[in-house]
Amino acid sequence: MNSEKEPLFSSKNIKLITEPLGSSNPITVQVLGICSALAVTVKMKPAFVMAISVMAVLAVSNVVISLIRNSIPPRIRIIVQLVVIAAMVILVDQILKAFVYDISKQLSVFVGLIITNCILMGRLEAFAMGNKPWPSFLDGLGNAAGYSIILLIVSFFRELLGSGTIWGYKVIPESFYSFGYQNNGLMILPPMALIVLGIIIWVQRARNKKLIETK
Amino acid sequence: MKSLRGYLDKIKPKFEKGGKFEKFHSTFEAFESFMFVPDTVTTKGTHIRDANDMKRTMTVVVLALVPALLFGMWNVGNQHFLATGQEASFWQSFFTGFISVLPIIVVSYVVGLGIEFAFAQYRGHEVNEGFLVTGMLIPLVLPVDVPLWMVALATAFAVIIGKEVFGGTGMNIFNPALTARAFLFFAYPSYMSGNEVWTHGMIKGEGIIDSFTGATPLAEAAAGNIDKLPSVSDMFFGFIPGSIGETSTLAILIGAAILLFTGVGSARIMISTVVGGLVMGLILNIFAVNPYMEVPAYQHLMLGGFAFGAVFMATDPVSAAQTAKGKIIYGFLIGFLAILIRVLNPAYPEGMMLAILLMNVFAPLIDHYVIEANISKRLKRVKVQE
Question: Of A156, A148, A168, A140, whose CA–CA distance to A193 is shortest?
Answer without folding.
Answer: A156
